[in-house]
Amino acid sequence: MTGPRMTDPLPIVRADNATLAHGSRVVLAEASFTLVPGEIVGLLGPNGAGKSTLFRALLGLIAPRAGSITTLGRPARTGRPGISYLPQQEPNGQFLSAWDVVAAAHAGNRPGLPWRNRAARAAIDAALAETGAAGFAQRPFASLSGGERQRVLLAQALAGQPRLLLLDEPLTSLDPAAQAETVGLLSAIRARLGCTILVSSHEISPLLPVMDRVLYLARGQAALGPVDRVITGPVLSGLYGAPVEVLRAGGRIFVLPGEAPAALHQAV
Ligand SMILES: Nc1ncnc2c1ncn2[C@@H]1O[C@H](COP(=O)(O)OP(=O)(O)OP(=O)(O)O)[C@@H](O)[C@H]1O
Ligand SMILES: [Mg+2]
């Protein structure tokens, strides 16, 4: 048998026939998968596939319509210690400061809520100071440079001491060098804390150096496994319900859904 063991007595995340929906729109249909301690899993899928929705479900911010989701061995709910979360930075949502990002991680997450008691504030300030991020803690996270964001990420991990670290698109808008540094930082955080990291991304390639497995979402379906088994034409074509081509070149992987080649043809 290869890959992480599925029989761990305490899975970090377990989705059991979980259905997630916004109103009448089903985002994930009867998905079952398990994340084990200490693995780094890339959460991939096209826009609107449900990556951010899954994070919100893991945080207990939305309840499964059917089935169940457990985190750290118990039904997902808000305010659970041991889970850190970096929300996706919305293009217009420049309001989340670096301090807020670390604070959101510290006590199990309702981003933006003023739940900070004195001890919590001190722990957040200490983590920011330890990573050299105190000087820009009040600036919007989205306005920080790649290197500055890394320090905030590290502070976040330190402040939360998480067993499960949820990062929603931490690589977006970073240049390739900063992406690589951030990905390296994920390894460092995992090595230091031994935590499970679920990290979403639009691109697979930057995560390849650290990803143990990939959780790919499309059309309400989920596929979890090693990159070489999931990121293939047949598996992704099945998920998308349409032909998908997978190209590997120069250590990078390109997923080309059916419509992409057509667009290319139109361009020539
Ligand atoms: N609060 C909401 N109310 C209604 N529909 C929503 C809500 N949040 C998300 N959706 C819809 O659910 C689907 C999944 O959205 P989600 O944000 O989880 O996708 P995503 O994979 O994170 O996309 P992206 O890559 O663009 O970040 C989309 O169709 C989205 O429009
Ligand atoms: Mg998203």
Structural notes for this entry:
The chain is 31% helix and 26% strand. It has 268 residues and is an alpha/beta fold. It has two domains: 1-82 and 162-226, 3-Layer(aba) Sandwich (Rossmann fold), CATH 3.40.50.300; 94-159. The strands form three sheets. It has a six-stranded mixed sheet with strand order 6-7-8-3-9-10, sandwiched between helices. Strand 4 and strand 5 form a beta hairpin. Helix 4 (146-160) packs parallel to helix 5 (176-193). The chain starts with 12 loop residues before the first strand and ends with a helix. The model is unreliable at 260-268 (pLDDT under 50). Bound molecules: adenosine-5'-triphosphate (ATP) and magnesium ion. The site of magnesium ion has 4 residues, from helix 1.
Q: Which properties best describe this structure?
A:
268 residues, alpha/beta, Rossmann fold, six-stranded mixed beta sheet, 12 strands, binds adenosine-5'-triphosphate, binds magnesium ion
Helix share bin: 25-40%
Mean pLDDT, nearest integer? Answer: 85
CATH superfamily heading of the largest domain = P-loop containing nucleotide triphosphate hydrolases
Low-confidence stretches: 260-268
Count of alpha/pi helices: 8
Termini separation (Å)? Answer: 47 Å
What is the overall silhouette? globular
CATH architecture of the largest domain, by name, is: 3-Layer(aba) Sandwich
For the largest sheet, list the strands in their spatial order. Answer: 6-7-8-3-9-10
Global structural class:
alpha/beta
Which sheet architecture does the biggest sheet show? 6 strands, mixed
What small molecules are bound in this structure? Answer: adenosine-5'-triphosphate, magnesium ion
CATH class of the largest domain: Alpha Beta
Number of domains: 2
Percentage of residues in strands: 25-35%
